[in-house]
Design brief:
A: alpha+beta; 5-stranded mixed sheet; 4-stranded antiparallel sheet; rod-shaped; B: 244 residues; mainly alpha; 2 domains; 15 helices
């Protein structure tokens, strides 16, 4: 495209030209340019607005991409969101729930393919115990849970220390909820409390925290088992194979908890002290449980 | 994809060059015409000056050089475009060198009488005065625009980009110029008599609003005694008078 025009004005960075079709255009300046020059020029000579900013567009885009990337990676690693606890559920399908401080589910993460089948509806916004009940119910419908295969691992990890929520309370809520529904009886529930550190490691290995905790406990006794095996194993297999002790232990700890609750009911006045004390107690009890387990293993 | 297209282009270009070499004059003319933007670009880049549209030696030299490049090009030499660019550049540079030698003033007495006549004629060309007047006219135009609070920068931003809207705006301008009352109103109020225009021409207020400054500028040129400027716009294809 050839333009003919006359220069009408010269500005600092460009010259204004009126073409013979009465178009007004900016052109880049060249030597010997003067008002009144009638010139021929081509498209390349038309001054491009914001020539400089084009150079920066790439830079700006790069910064944006970096920002977005860093934000997503941060949220993946450390749950910047409002989640105060992670609750995992392993039947064979493994699901993780992010829970906020009001015990509501704010995010649901399926860990394996089967999990997606159970998530037939939006679970965000439900109380955690209700959400778990729904999933277990669905699992029953889909025959993931039968009379013989009825083991479930529930893992709880608190991600924000400052909140008043604690793992025990979530456990109790879930237990109570499951008790209410007659259809959900006869389940072999295994609870595992996890820590922030273990949560991060579990994330790294792409296992649910529940399984990861169980794996850790098994590791204490039986070094042969690997995480990979564990990942592939179904919950029922884990329970059936060699974890009788684990079951026993769990039952023990359940009893302990019930005792504790009873005790707590008795001493309503000194709540704060009591909580601390009970925590200490439970730690001690756990330790003693471990000891007794070890003894048992020896006996076996 | 573009590479593929490039490949086809090259292919067709070599084919065309072959045709021309055999003696196809029409094809030669067509090819030169097609490559005029390229020739202009090469010349401007070499001299770092714009080519003046009237009596530009560089322009004709460029076209001659391109023509020469067609003749001299051998297919084994690589890209034709690069070759043509080289030829044009060197011819233009030769010309500039020659001119600069000329400029190293030569006393008139050195020339023969016939030559003196010829040179004087050349130097006399209306060109100089003409361009002076033209410059003056443009400055006058600018001051006229100022009365309407319009600058060239405004026109840059607001002048209609599309050919059709521009032609339409020019039609409105022409109408105003031909209509004494409207013109008088415009000059007095310094705004477009939009109600009358919409009623009489059936144009929408939107168009008037959008190209207000452009229309006023066009009126100012058409209604002025800026003969050269007026001529300039109207003489070429797509110009005001041709279109209307």
């Amino acid at each position: 495209m050839i333009y003919r025009g006359c220069i009408v004005k010269i500005e600092k960075d460009f010259a204004i030209i009126m073409t013979d079709t009465m178009e007004y255009l900016k052109i880049i300046k060249r030597d010997g340019i003067a008002v009144g020059n009638k010139i021929i020029f081509v498209k390349e000579d038309v001054y491009k607005e914001k020539q400089n900013s084009f150079k920066h567009i790439g830079l700006i885009a790069a910064v944006f991409i970096l920002l977005i990337l860093s934000m997503t990676s941060i949220s993946n690693q450390s749950y910047v969101s409002n989640a105060v606890a992670i609750v995992s559920l392993d039947i064979n399908p493994s699901i993780e729930f992010e829970v906020d401080k009001r015990n509501k589910v704010i995010n649901v993460i399926p860990i394996n393919k089967e999990a997606k089948e159970l998530m037939d509806r939006e679970l965000v916004g439900y109380n955690i115990e209700k959400a778990i009940a729904i999933i277990i119910y669905n699992a029953k419908e889909k025959d993931y849970i039968t009379e013989t295969r009825n083991s479930i691992i529930i893992g709880v990890a608190i991600t924000k220390d400052e909140t008043h929520i604690d793992a025990k309370k979530i456990e109790m809520d879930i237990k109570n909820q499951l008790k209410e529904d007659p259809k959900l009886k006869d389940l072999n529930l295994i609870y595992a409390e996890s820590s922030k550190k273990n949560l991060v490691e579990a994330k790294k290995e792409h296992v649910s925290i529940g399984k990861y905790e169980v794996y850790k406990k098994l590791k204490e006794k039986d070094n042969k088992i690997t995480l990979k095996q564990m990942k592939e194993m179904k919950v029922q297999e884990i329970v059936d194979k060699d974890i009788i002790e684990l079951k026993m232990k769990k039952q023990h700890s359940k009893k302990d908890k019930e005792k504790k609750v009873e005790k707590n009911k008795g001493k309503k006045e000194k709540k704060k002290h009591k909580e601390k004390a009970s925590n200490k107690k439970s730690n001690k009890e756990k330790a003693s449980n471990k000891k007794s387990n070890k003894e048992r293993v020896k006996n076996l | 994809m573009t590479r593929l297209l490039d490949f086809f282009n090259k292919h067709s270009l070599t084919k065309r060059l072959e045709k021309i070499k055999i003696g196809d004059c029409d094809e030669r003319g067509k090819l030169i015409e097609e490559y005029i933007p390229f020739i202009i670009k090469t010349i401007s880049n070499t001299t770092n000056k714009y080519i003046e549209s009237e009596n530009s030696d560089e322009y004709s030299i460029g076209i001659e050089a391109f023509n020469e490049a067609i003749d001299k090009y051998e297919f084994s030499k690589g890209s034709f475009i690069n070759f043509a660019e080289l030829v044009i550049k060197s011819r233009i540079l030769d010309y500039i060198r020659k001119m600069s030698k000329h400029e190293a003033s030569i006393p008139m007495s050195q020339f023969q009488e016939e030559e003196i006549d010829h040179i004087e004629k050349q130097l006399q060309t209306e060109d100089f005065t003409e361009s002076f007047i033209f410059k003056h006219e443009i400055e006058e135009f600018e001051t006229k625009l100022e009365q309407f609070n319009i600058t060239f920068l405004d026109l840059l931003k607001e002048a209609p980009k599309h050919v059709d809207t521009r032609v339409n705006a020019l039609r409105i301008a022409k109408y105003i110029v031909e209509n004494e009352k409207l013109k008088e109103e415009l000059m007095r109020k310094k705004t477009l008599p939009s109600t009358k225009l919409t009623a009489e021409l059936g144009v929408t207020v939107k168009i008037l609003k959008r190209s207000r400054k452009f229309i006023i500028a066009a009126v100012l040129i058409l209604d002025s005694d800026l003969e050269q400027l007026k001529n300039y716009i109207s003489q070429t294809k797509g110009g005001v008078i041709n279109d209307l």
